[in-house]
Amino acid sequence: MPLADRIALVTGAGQGIGEASALALAAAGADVVAVDIDGQSASDTASAISATGRRSLAVQADMGDVRDIDRMVAEAIAAFGRIDILVNNAGVTRRAYIMDLTEEDWDRIHRVNSKGVFFCLQRVAREMIPRRSGRIVNIASIAGKGFAGTSNAIYAASKGAVISLTKTAAQQLGQHNINVNAICPGVTRTALSDANLRVRAQQEGLTLEAMERRRAEVIPLQRVNDPEDIAAMAVFLASPGARNITGQSYNVDGGIIPD
Question: Is-contact 231 17, C-beta < 8 A?
Answer without folding.
Answer: yes
